[in-house]
Amino acid sequence: MKYVSLISRRQDLSREAFRDYYEQRHAPLALTFFPPQLYQRNHLNMPDAVVPFDCLSEFDYADDFDPLSVLQTEAGPRLAEDESNFMDRSSVCSAKALPLARHLTEGQGMRERELWLIAHGDQAQSDLNEQLLALFAQLQADAGCTSPATLYSLEPYYCERFPYAALLMSESPLPEPFAAALTGGGATRIQVVSCPS
Fold first, then answer.
1. pLDDT at position 143, please?
2. What is the spatial distance between Cα 58 and Cα 21, in angstroms, rounded to a whole number?
3. 93: which residues sit within 8 A by CB, 6+ positions away?
4. Cys staple from 157: which of 6, 94, 104, 161, with CB 3.0 to 4.6 Å?
5. Is 158 left (phi over 0), alpha (psi -120 to 50) or beta?
6. What secondary structure letter does DSSP report for 87?
7. Closest residue by Cα to residue 7 from 46, 32, 41
8. What is the CA radius of gyration of the chain?
């Protein structure tokens, strides 16, 4: 199961200081308690970006793993104390990321990527998923498209509401027709530096 969390820095920290603490201090600590199949932090790489978070973190676990049970152990207080050193804990929200489609294989290691966040609209989630799947099928059929990409539907996870309904992760910029279609549909494109563990 994949989860994603939107994480904002403490207001007194720069994005650089936030990223440094997260990578050098918090991520190694978190890994001692939560050994996921993938723990990837996607730090904003846009100086003037106006989005309500500084990092989108990905967590891949076996389907039978319950991360909340770990927080009932000594891990809960230790991680909460450390999180208060660099993040605004009150703003963190999480979602289950349910895979809808994949195009080629994602890259490995630290790298730059492009994420597309699709907001909730007036339509039902199932209708939005169908619309996005149709667009993604066009992307897969485009012989000139060599960018690995994965499309996810998002469901709130232990929060009342998650601000986005879907997420498209692309290893490189999408071809212009697809980028234009997503932008026209109200999606937000962000550039990130991905740091996997």
1. 62
2. 17
3. 5, 6, 156, 159, 161, 162, 163
4. 94
5. left
6. B
7. 41
8. 17
